[in-house]
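[09:14] KT: can someone run the structure on this one? pasting the chain below
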Amino acid sequence: MAEVGGRKPDPADVGSADAVMYCGPCKNVQATSFCKDCHEYLCSTCTDHHEKLGITKTHQLLKGAKFPSFYPTRKGQTSESFEKCNDHPHEDVKLFCKTHNTVFCVACSVGKHKDCNKKYIPDIAQGYTTGTEYSKLQSDIQDLNTLGAQCQADIDRCLKEVNALNRGEVDKLKQFKTLINEYLNNREKELIAEMQQRCDRDTSLLQDIQARLKTWQSDLSDARAKLQSHQQSSYKLFITGKRIQPLVDQLQETLNDMQQQTRYQHYELVKDDRMVKILADKTGIATVETSSKTSQKGNWFRLTLKGVVNEGPLSTFQLIPRS
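[09:31] RB: done, structure tokens below
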């Protein structure tokens, strides 16, 4: 499994009858057996676990007179090449649980994965990079990256349109106001404030989504970088892929949520010809109301101007669908 637990302090792998061998997993506990299958020295506690664990109980252990004072390490599989367990920092991650789709160490296997279907990672990791699971993970990340860019484009477009909408509608209101003189100034200010409030609200919502997207893009970039940094090691790539899969799933859910929220309400200033004849009316110039019109990304609203001709007060401005 890992580097053979060794003598201290002889790194040259030259054995002697008086050499003291140490447990590979425990590092500083004297070994009492050696596993020929794992190429690893084990203390008495680790030996007990080794003999009980389903995946290792058939391994050949050398004890007593057969206990070797020296055994060469496996090249390319030193203990430094293994990842450390999140729950047991001093233990190497060597096992994969098919039942729970997670990776763990021998200590975890004895505990919460005791009855699970387990595989030895170095035995199964070699084919990970050519398998459909890794291919799908890469594809999912690439798709998320593309969708994230599309989401950013939607936000940019909406921000541009909502501000252009606001400028255009305010300009239309001001142009109409010049025809109804000073009397309408106070009402005009109220309407501008209301429209600006809607604009500010939508702008704030879109900017909040944009801030979330930047964090989302950073997390996605980190996930891609972690995978890229382990391209030369199928073992580490397997571990990293398993560890970041939940993050990728969460990024998909977050992106869906942001896409659903990337929208704004539309409003438009529409003047009524009868308003020209009603300059003496005292009930107001317009109201800003939500429209039934929908855009690509949300509900739109517009400002509608209506009135009567010399027969009574100006009516409350209402929602009028625009063709």
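[09:33] KT: thanks! The chain is about 40% helix and 10% strand.
[09:34] RB: yep, looked fine to me
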